[in-house]
Amino acid sequence: MATFDLQSVLQIPCSEVSPLYYSRKLNMFNLTFYSLKPPNDAACYCWTELDGKRGSSEVGTCILKWLSKLPETVNEAVLYSDTCSGQNRNRYIAAVLLFAVQTTNVKVIHQKFLERGHAYLCILERGHTYTEVDSMHSSIEFVKKNVSVYSPHEWENIFRSARMKRPHEVIPLHYSDFLDLKQMCHSLLRESAASKIRWMSVKCLKFDKEKPGMIEVRYSHEGDYESINVFGRSRAPAYNATQAYKSQLPISVAKYNDLQKLCTKGIIPRELHSWYAGLPTSVSVVDTTPEPAIEDSDGEMD
């Protein structure tokens, strides 16, 4: 049993030096898992904007990796998250969990969405859900305070040192690690069946290895599940997965130029200049301010 959540967007470089405030910076993402069973193991799956975005394909890939690393003795897994539709509560995550229950040792997977009233697992403050996994984010922010960061590896060291007795496990991800969940969804879920599920109202989902092609849905946290056959009468499709990206994702030319200026001014350490100089760019990329993950939003984040 675990909770998971994507931390607020981190930046590289990150320092108190004033020129950094006016410069475009690389984004770093960190999806954290917190086990609710003592000794409360915790894991950080992290990547930069060069290797992926922060949508359902990235989140689903991390969930699959986390499930795949569970001991063989674990037959059932329960995952709790907030209700962000673009990252956690959608047909793409359902597809990867349908995939996971057939390709990992876990026989039954539950996905549950937290809401007001689940006091043990979360509290609701100013419209946002806070769970135990957010304690990881708080400890990371505490360790980061007054520490300068100029590379992904330095963020990874901060993630590890955020808990002393049982350090967070850190799993850096490369663009080749991410799976195309949209392709997986199209191959596993019939559109007519998936459209029967009221995704914005789902409270619990259940996936059982003994019931291939079945998604069990509940629109409340109590009562019976409704079973939906997403395969239909056709023969079960092959369980395969393809890469989401064929190469690193380029950044904008403007962001690249800002980072090179920081190198020229000596704000970024000299030993990292060659890494920054090799960042891929594209004139078609437009910089946007990362938007927060909104719970119960209608849109899906790519």
Notes on the structure:
This protein has 302 residues and is an alpha/beta fold. The protein has one domain. 27% of the residues lie in helices and 22% in strands. The chain contains nine helices and 14 strands. Strands 1, 2, 3, 4, 5, 6, 9, 10, 11 and 12 form a ten-stranded mixed β-sheet that branches. Helix 3 links the parallel strand 5 and strand 6. The longest helix is centred in the first third of the chain and has 13 residues. The two termini are 27 Å apart. The C terminus is likely disordered.
Features:
two-stranded antiparallel sheet, 9 helices, disordered C terminus, alpha/beta, 302 residues
- The tally of strands reads 14
H/E series: EEHEEHEHEEEHHEHHEEEEHHE
Count of domains? 1
Oligomeric composition of the shown chains = single chain
Helix/strand structural class: alpha/beta
Largest sheet: 10 strands, mixed
Uncertain parts? 117-129, 294-302
Mean pLDDT: 89
Helix content: 25-40%
As a whole number of angstroms, the C-alpha radius of gyration is 20 Å
Residue fraction in strands: 15-25%
Q: Which of globular, elongated, flat, extended, rod-shaped describes the shape?
A: globular
End-to-end distance: 27 Å
How many helices? The count is 9
Short overview:
With about 300 residues, the chain is an alpha/beta fold. It has helices at about 20, 55-70, 90-105, 135-145, 150-160, 180-190, 190-195, 255-265, 275, and strands at about 1-5, 10, 25-35, 40-50, 75-80, 110-115, 120-125, 130, 170, 205-210, 215-220, 225-230, 250, 280.
